[in-house]
Amino acid sequence: MLALRSTLFAIVFYSWTALYSLGMTPLLICPRGWCVVAMRFWSRTVIVLLRVICGIRVEVRGAPPQGPALIAAKHQSALDVYAEFAWLPDSCFVAKKELRKIPGFGWWALKARMIYVDREGGSGALKKLVRDAQDRLKDSRQVLIFPEGTRRPLGAEPDYKPGVAALYRELGMPVSPLATNSGAHWPRKGFRMTPGTIVFEYLEPIPPGLKRGEFMRLLEERIEDASARLARL
Question: Apex CA 171: angle with CA 166 and CA 177, to 5°?
Fold first, then answer.
């Protein structure tokens, strides 16, 4: 039964996404705000499909930032990207540059002015990341970065990268850690869905001004402890 429901979800998800992307193509020449609204509606329909087809509910805990903010999130499944459009007013994701090549998604992400990084670019890429984040924050956007850079298997050892520390230091603003148990229900790879509740929990912000080592220790501790707790639900 789980396999059947997972297969049905995959078919409906891809079909709906393709049709929606095609139907909303004219918005690519409209103001960026229109695309934000379209992406929010698409994200909310994905959440509904999860509940109806797979028996997976999505719950938000804590207070999602409503103004300019820097969010550092655990990354376990594709839903970690999709879901945030549903409740953040104007989110901006930090993503690897290869994602620009994906038909449909790449077009919308460029229009929405997401931040792309070259993971092999060294210090130059970090400087560009900071400049782009500063630019997006001028528009009161919520910059969301996955500190580990990619989806990690549920329970895997954490592997936090330096990008989030560079943003924390140069932006001089609090960081909102975001924990999740999404990998327990929507796996890192594939569509083998497991019924239950996916929780996205916004944790106590980390104030600016900490030394790099202390910041990274505190960020990892808060995200990993909360994500492990949520995985036991």
Answer: 75
- Tens of each residue's pLDDT in the chain, 233 residues: 788 998 999 999 999 988 988 888 888 888 988 888 998 999 999 999 999 999 999 999 999 999 999 999 999 999 998 899 999 999 999 987 776 666 666 777 788 888 888 776 677 878 888 999 999 999 999 999 999 988 988 888 999 998 899 999 999 999 999 999 999 999 888 788 999 999 999 999 999 999 999 999 999 999 999 999 999 87
Token output for 157: 């050892």
How do beta strands 175-180 and 196-202 pair? antiparallel
Report how far residue 197's alpha carbon sits from residue 139's, in angstroms, rounded to the nearest whole number.
33
Taking the C-alpha atoms of residue 133 and residue 129, their distance in angstroms, rounded to an integer, is 6
- Residues 92, 114: Cα–Cα separation, whole Å: 5
